[in-house]
Design goal:
The structure is a single chain. It contains 5 helices and no strands. It has 142 residues and is mainly alpha-helical. The longest helix is centred in the N-terminal third of the chain and has 21 residues.
């Protein structure tokens, strides 16, 4: 299979991520289905991601190849967005970091919509608040 096929490369990346993070998750106590350990949920998610990656690689053999294009500009925008998220979250707060990440990273897309960015930011903020207040994670949101 050609590494210039977007579908094949996408599947390979999913498989690699699933194996790396699944390996880390397996190092934590798994517990059992009646009493979950800290590694069980990430391991289950990685198992699902691995399955999706394998299906994507197999599917790449049966559909017409889609050429893989690299855009250094878009890679730089996404990397700058991630670095900005870390800096804003560290020095201000994570809610502003989320908004920065969304508005900056979407500059790499083909269309830019402020309304869509506001909706995505709001959704991610709701998820972050749920993680903090419902799951008890120590996130610097406020």
């Amino acid at each position: 299979m050609n590494l210039n096929n977007r579908n094949f490369v996408r599947g390979l990346f999913l498989i690699v991520f699933a194996l790396v993070f699944g390996g880390v998750a397996a190092g934590y106590p798994l517990g059992n289905l009646a009493r979950f350990g800290p590694g069980l949920f990430p391991l289950l998610v990685c198992g699902c991601l691995l399955l999706v990656g394998i299906i994507t690689v197999i599917r790449a053999y049966f559909v017409e190849p889609v050429p893989l294009n690299y855009s250094i500009r878009n890679i730089a925008i996404v990397m700058a967005s991630l670095i900005g998220f870390v800096l804003v979250s560290n020095y201000l707060n994570m809610l502003l970091g989320i908004v920065f990440l969304v508005f900056c990273s979407t500059l790499a897309g083909t269309s830019y919509s402020v309304a869509r960015n506001v909706k995505i930011s709001a959704g991610l903020i709701v998820v972050a608040l749920a993680f903090k207040f419902l799951l008890g994670l120590n996130l610097p949101l406020l």
